[in-house]
Amino acid sequence: MSQPDEPLQLTEVRNSSASLTALDHAQIAELVYEAGREFYDCFAMTHDRLLEAIVPQLVRPGTELSGTHALRSGGDVEGIVSTIDANDLRNAQTVSVAHLLRELTASEREPAMARLSEHSAVIEPSPPEGVYVARFAVARERRGHGLGQRLLAWVCDTFGDQTLTLHISRANESAIGLYEGHGFRRLSDADFGFPAYVRQPPVDR
Amino acid sequence: MSLNSSDIYASVGGVFREVFPQASGDLRPELTPSEVPGWDSLGHVSLIASIEDEFGIEFTPDEYVQFESVGGLVALIETKLQ
């Protein structure tokens, strides 16, 4: 496991794909799924089929997952974070959804679209500026060791000179506490199932 | 076999009726999303996925949002098929 006194070993998935095994990709896809479970469940695919559909999105340009980094240690993937220029988010979401829809039959698409429509209605609109954290997850068996804190600190160190935005389920109190501890604040008091949280860059003095 | 514009319009029309069943009237080049019930951002994604299937093509991320009318879509398909 990543040791507290050692720097995190993060791999940029898209540019390191050749050195990652099929198992690495599957573990990364699993964490991507966990980070976006409510979105992916809209497609109602079997789990294996869904993971197979997620993997190509990690290495293609222009998807929500093109900027995915994996935290690896001892041959296992311990966590993932996917970031994207917030200006590119809408296009990237379009690409990602279209790729997943193409995996469905015509008769599967209509109910999937209905579920996606319901899901998108509970996500608070967020400003297209800075960097958007599209996926963030720590492997279940590695939780409780501060890896989420360290991974989020890496995000803030790496991209924190820009506005950072993410969405989190309002029911996920532990994750909200983590993000608030790193300076994220709710964008508004509006009633959304997935409110936006924003972290402003430090003000130069 | 290469497709000409009218072939493409015919195929796009079939896709349109499937993706936007509430749409009425003829498929005109100047038709824009605001005139077609259901052609919102999600409808756009569904249209793209179905068009890619229909013609066996794949749009780039920029192309996904490049067209703003039926005519633009058909022109884009023609370019991809060349």
Structure description:
The complex is a heterodimer of chains A (205) and B (82). Chain A is an alpha+beta fold and 205 residues long. Helices cover 40% and strands 18% of the residues of chain A. Chain A is built from 7 helices and 7 strands, in the order βαααββααβαβαββ. Chain A has a 7-stranded mixed β-sheet with strand order 1-2-3-4-5-7-6, sandwiched between helices. In chain A, strand 2 (68-73) and strand 3 (76-85) form a beta hairpin. In chain A, helix 1 (22-35) packs across helix 3. The radius of gyration of chain A is 17 Å and the shape is globular. The mean pLDDT of chain A is 93. Chain B is mostly helical and 82 residues long. In chain B, helix 1 packs across helix 2 (41-55) and helix 1 crosses helix 4. Chain B has 4 helices and no strands. Chain A binds chain B through residues 61-63, 90-92, 94-95, 97-99, 101-102, 106, 109, 113, 116-117, 120, and chain B through 18, 41-46, 48-50, 52-53, 59-62, 64-65.
